[in-house]
Amino acid sequence: MASTDILTFSSTPPRQFGTCNMSSSPALPSPSNLFMKKPQILRTGSRAAPIPQNPTASFTSAAALFQKASDNLQGADTIQPLTLASVDIYDIDSTEPTKSLKLRTKKVVAKKDDPSNDKVAKPTRKSAAKKDEGEEVKKPRKPRANKSGGDLAENGEVKKAPRKSRAKKVDVDENGDVLVKEKTVRQPRAKKVDGDTQTKISKGKVTKGSKAEAPSKVKVKSIDSAAESLDFGLVEAVKRRTAWTPPRPTSLSSIMPVSVDTPDTPRGGLGLLESEEKTTGFKDLLESFGFTNSDAHPNERKAPDGAGTRKRKLIELANTNVGDAAVVAVAPKPKGPKKKARTITDQATSAYREDEADLPSPPAAPAPLLQYFTYKDSANNDGFKIPAKPRAKSPVKRGSKPKKGSAQAPILLSPESALKQVGNQDFVFGTSSQLAREESPTFLRDLHEAIQASNQIEDDPFSDILDSSSPLPVFSSRGKALASAKRTLWSAGARDTSGDLLDVEMIDMVDSPAVARMLKVSAMQPNATSLPSHTDDWLDVEEISKSTLASTMDQMPPTNVGPIETAIREELLSSPLRNSMQKQNSPRPSKVSKKPKVPGPSQSSTIPQASQAPKRPDYDSYSTAQLMKEIASYRFKPIKNRDQMLTLLEKCWEGKNRVALGVLGTNKILSTSPVKDSSSAKAPPASSQNTSPKRPRGRPRKDSAASPEASPAKPKTKAKVGRPKKTETVEFLEFDSDTPLSQIRTPKKSQKKAKKLVDEISDSDTPMTPSPPRRRASQLGSSPLPLRLLNPAEEEMAETTPAELQTFLFSHITKAVTSLPPSTDPLKPNWQEKILLYDPIVLEDLTLWLNTGALDKVGWDGEVLAKEVKKWCESKSVCCLWRENLRGGSRCRY
Amino acid sequence: MPMDRPIPAFYCCYLLRSTVRHGSVYVGSTPNPVRRLKQHNGLAKGGAVRTSKKTLRPWEMTCIVTGFPSHIAALQFEWAWQNPHITLHIAPEERLQRATQKKRSGQPKRPRHSVPSLLSNLHVLLRSPSFSRWPLELRFFSADVHKAWTKWTKVTAESIRDSLPVIQDFSPVDQVSSGDESGSSPKNKKRKTTHGIAALPIDYTNQKTHVVIGKEIVEFEREGSCKICKRNLEHDAGIYTICPSPGCESVTHLTCLSKHFLRGDEETLVPIKGHCPSCNTELRWVDVVKELSLRMRGQKEVEKLLKVKRARKTKGSASQVAVESSDGEDDEDEIMEEFVPGTQGMVADYWRAIDDTDGSDAESITSNISLAKTTSLHASKPGALGTVIEDSDWDDMDVLD
């Protein structure tokens, strides 16, 4: 509209437009005419367009019409009007064509009425409108119209017109009249019509010259005339054809000539239309009925169609490809060789589709048909494959083959062999997309094999170990039994001859000390069945778990089989001895105690490496004073209870004389179990064990298990055990700085409650064991003296009050805290400074710091628990907090 | 992980009582009692469910315990106060109230609270070793509550430490309650700013001079040597305390000063007060440390504080009053009195910038709150200082024990 627009665009008018005289709608009459005719209402009655004499009952594609028209081309007379018509289209100034246009319009309108389908009608109008739209797109047209007067004005008005035409169908008639004549050709395909396509068409036609137009016009004209008998067959044929599956290009194109042949019209026009037309004739016609590759590609199909189809295709292309004028030009060319399978189904079935390229077209006609009827292909392969194709559950093995692109030559097999072959197939189920994705042809096969192989794999990794190891006869029978018991669900309930559960993993870790004990006992017993004979129910439980433990031991991957096992055995042996000693104090059948005792030495004798154990002194015979002396020699706090002293001494002895324990199978199990025994006795060792996972706990656990029975009623004094307990915990905690301090927290309670000789015992036990060496050494070194130093007065005392102990501890903490040098980094105040700054103290951190050397510096060798630290803080009025919530979360900011 | 904020300028636990029904009480904590009270009374959003009953409103803060060195400390105290039947801070033998029933959840049921019971529990708590050395201060706004307190203290054999100030902060005119904000006249406003929770400094204004002194010293690296151990104090190589007294400029190691304050007490860790080694002024430990914490961790707060100060210079009274205030033992009270003339400017900066014609406290507070948002100069609200955890409600108290 603006003048600027005019200026800008006028500089670059495409040549095409130039030929059009800058008119985007050359076929339209002058805008003035259009506008004059605008107020036309729906034309009915006399004004209605006459029904065409040869109406198509169904959609008539433009191609069809075009074809008809082309068919009807007869000599120059037709051409002439066509040329005229073409001229009309592109010559704005001519007013003559308006009449013809009108005629055509009538025809077109009639055609329009035929479908009586809004879609068709509208598209036609739309097409009309869109053609204008297309011109609208080129806005400069409008200004150009304004600029150059009539032409541009026409354009502009043309533009306006279609807009209105949108709203009012009537108006379109005006505009559409001119364009519709072309669009009638495209009518049936008008869905996608838009203005640009029209322009393209027009352009295409322009570029093509009038020749192309001529036949179209001819067709139109012929249609208009509706008097062409020659057309009858064609039209009808075309009409019929449009209702069918679109035939292949070759066939269609052939049809055209075929049909045209009869009227003996020159083929020149047609030939002009499509260069690729084949003259195969009927064969092509029949080909259209067969399923061929070409049919799978509709685009392709349309391309080489005859004049009618060609037109359709042209329109399609023009319609769909916005602004691509060239497409129309090349449209007639066939699609060329069939493209590679693009869809998954195609991929899957490509192998079974005979390659079109291989087949010459003439034999191609019968081939598809024959495919259905021939048994050239093995019935059980292709025969059912093709129909099987669409099914999701198609044999994948075959699916992989299509990748190769060519179907293997099918061999006709006998039914039996065919069945066998079917059986050999590895069916893999999946959707076509899944199946088609297989890249490697052997992938699925390999996968299948792998799956089968895995199912076969023995999932008991210990079975081979069992076979290879366990030299001892004790376990041999059991081992074999175990080897047979696989770790499957069934084996979970497997039981051995004694009726005990074979599956080791079912062991309840809670009973681990008991289990360990049982294991010892069972180790001594060559026959597990003898154990249940003991009436002591305590033992029964032991035995059961013993047997299981034994199996566990067998199943545990013995990294060092020989020496470790023997050591374990020896260990186990020794503990029953201990057990026996403990049991002295409890009313147990002596046979129980003796029995383990008796086979113990015998068993120990069988174990070569355990021969070093000297004769254990009979502590029982010692007097109390002597016991005290002994205990002191082991650097333990004096114990009041004689029984406990005995126990302790025994354990000390054991620890002294034990071989390197190494990896104890039971220990491994136990060590991984954080579950504490129900009895409080186990809690402290458990706590210490929790904090020292590496430490073999078999022994301490056993000991702890032993001691509670022996001393269930021991008064819970903090003093005795507190100190040595702390000793142990020091070592434990020291090496477990990464252990969650919550664990430090929790066992503290039990520690306070239960005074355990256990820790002391375990302490003494450990020095001899090489692993973990760190702990032992530290324990060795640090335990003796501080105990004495701290409480020399208490050496002879039975107990120190908890309060005193606490105050003592507190003083140490205070000392530790205050003896810190002032920090050098203002951002990192030391503990004292933090306290002075009123910072809330995180208990975990402080505890950790105290335990990792601070207390040692001030001479306190025990370890503190966080709870104690909390008490200390509270006593000092220091604000403190836990990092870990009670729920287990942990604070990150304070 | 480490402390990321300085000692809060103000944090208190309060005992709220319904003016309508004296039997209904509530314990909470807040860094801004005025705002909190408004919330309780429905004048602002965020009140507690327990205090939302219309029939019990308006509420009043009868007494507060203030001076907590951290919000965590305040919350711990608050919980202990709310749950004296459970808290471990009270030894079993000292426990005054025991849970007689158990709640459905297994928790022991809380005995009903009343003012006397709360006071007695407060007394116990303040005596308990866990809190005894905290730099707390007890302030009563309600005369009758104070009376109850004194009665109780007389009854009990033990007393809280002497150095824990118990302040009476009653309104001079009306002895009953001094915490409400219903006045609307300027006179009322002025009156109210002299006492009650509104008069409480909830920002660092009291530390301003100290902060300035410290800032200067540190900026110019004039630490010198520790006044106590005589070792050289390298700049930024340690934690040094600075005497708040203007002109003293004694810088010491934190630890040295603490030892000095403790006067050889080996078992105590945290001093409460002492004398400056050089100028011999009586100092409260918390004040010294507060400034230190500001210097160490409260850069933002210091900025805000000093910014405000600069803006206040126009008023004139601010800095002078600040300078005159000393961090003496009873500096709270002294400051309060001194602040009277300059109250408009000094106390609670949130009054500032609003014209004096703005009468109603509530209005000024609300407008002040909005002002806080608009002007970045408004510095001292602890909320603005970055304290995330502010008020705590009884209902959703974390178990901090």
Automatic annotation (TrEMBL), chain A:
Cellular component annotations (GO), alphabetically ordered: Slx1-Slx4 complex
Domain of life, per lineage: Eukaryota
Post-translational modification, as annotated: Phosphorylated in response to DNA damage.
Keyword vocabulary terms for this entry: DNA damage, DNA recombination, DNA repair, Endonuclease, Hydrolase, Nuclease, Nucleus, Phosphoprotein
Record region (Disordered): 107-220, 244-272, 289-309, 384-409, 574-621, 670-725, 741-785
Extent of Low complexity compositional bias: 673-688, 705-714
Subunit structure: Forms a heterodimer with SLX1.
Protein name per the record: Structure-specific endonuclease subunit SLX4
Organism: Lachnellula hyalina
Gene that encodes the chain: slx4
TrEMBL record, chain B:
Gene3D superfamilies: GIY-YIG endonuclease, Zinc/RING finger domain, C3HC4 (zinc finger)
GIY-YIG domain residues: 9-91
One of the GO BP terms on file: double-strand break repair via homologous recombination
GO molecular function: 5'-flap endonuclease activity; crossover junction DNA endonuclease activity
InterPro entries: GIY-YIG_endonuc, GIY-YIG_endonuc_sf, Slx1, SLX1_C, SLX1_endonuclease, Znf_RING/FYVE/PHD
Ranges annotated as biased composition (Polar residues): 174-186
Region of interest (Disordered), residue spans: 172-194
Keywords tagged on the record: DNA damage, DNA recombination, DNA repair, Endonuclease, Hydrolase, Nuclease, Nucleus
Cellular component terms per the entry's GO annotation: Slx1-Slx4 complex
Keyword DNA repair on entry: yes
Similarity section: Belongs to the SLX1 family.
Entry protein name: Structure-specific endonuclease subunit slx1
Organism: Lachnellula hyalina
Gene that produces this protein: slx1
